[in-house]
Amino acid sequence: MRIDLHTHSSASDGTDTPAELVRNAAAAGLDVVALTDHDSTRGHAGALAALPAGLTLVTGAELSCRIDGVGMHMLAYLFDPAEPALLAERELVRDDRVPRARAMIGKLRDLGVPITWEQVARIVGDASVGRPHIASALVELGVVPSVSDAFTADWLADGGRAYAEKHESDPFEAIRLVKEAGGVTVFAHPAAVKRGRTVPEDVIGRLAAAGLDGIEVDHMDHDPATRDALRSLAGDLGLLVTGSSDYHGSRKEIALGANTTDPEVYAEIVRRATGAFPVPGTGGPVPA
């Protein structure tokens, strides 16, 4: 089985619609794909409606968190999306995205970048605005060569010249809320140092003690040595180890299935979840 547990659609900051994402996942030879848009489950219905035969969808979200001034992302799988407390927290995070984006655009203009809200809004479309949309605008303007190059201290990385804060969940509270909604939590790309400061190992240990289920080890932002260190840490803490593409369509140069999760780990995630269950596709064949 080929299992990719971290992807994004146009419901957040990917470029594929949810329907396109599941069709592309099947065409890429995946057996299981998780749709984990930022702080949103709006793409689930479209993905489920278009789910091809032979592909299983894991519903989820990537939750924006912050601890001790350090931003981090928490992948949440197979939770009940209607559970009131978790829904309210996701909406609080999502509603703060527009004021934050406008603040970052203001900082960029102060730095001499001729970016406008109208340009960013065009890129966003019907999605929830995030830093990758602003990064795409910087690429359009020729300020940076790629979206990834916008996530530096010069521009949009945590603490960067154009960075602005938004409401982000406390990760311990996020774990509690996801658990109460029947879901499973995995710390996304915990050692992605290019994105800014990372959470220290002792905090990961505290998160594990609070119920964190796993850490995402095999990720494009982790080099081989980092993956080895994270795998050892996971073993010490009794955490599951996942791998995934963090696919964003054409917004990032990473293919679906570039990193995958072991089937036994996937089976354990499904076993632990009580809020929702993976959905097998029953649609028509994947287009050639």
Structure overview:
The chain is of the alpha/beta class. Helix content is 36%, strand content 16%. It is built from 10 helices and 8 strands. It has helices at residues 18-27, 44-49, 84-95, 97-110, 117-124, 131-140, 171-180, 201-209, 224-237, 263-272; strands at residues 3-7, 32-35, 56-67, 70-77, 184-188, 214-218, 240-243, 279-280. Strands 1, 2, 3, 4, 5, 6, 7 and 8 form an 8-stranded mixed β-sheet that branches. Strand 5 (184-188), helix 8 (201-209) and strand 6 (214-218) form a beta-alpha-beta unit. Helix 5 crosses helix 6 (131-140). Residues 284-288 have low confidence and may be disordered.
List the helices and strands and how they pair.
Elements: E1 3-7, H1 18-27, E2 32-35, H2 44-49, E3 56-67, E4 70-77, H3 84-95, H4 97-110, H5 117-124, H6 131-140, H7 171-180, E5 184-188, H8 201-209, E6 214-218, H9 224-237, E7 240-243, H10 263-272, E8 279-280
Parallel strand pairs: 1-2, 2-3, 5-6, 6-7
Antiparallel strand pairs: 3-4, 3-8, 4-5
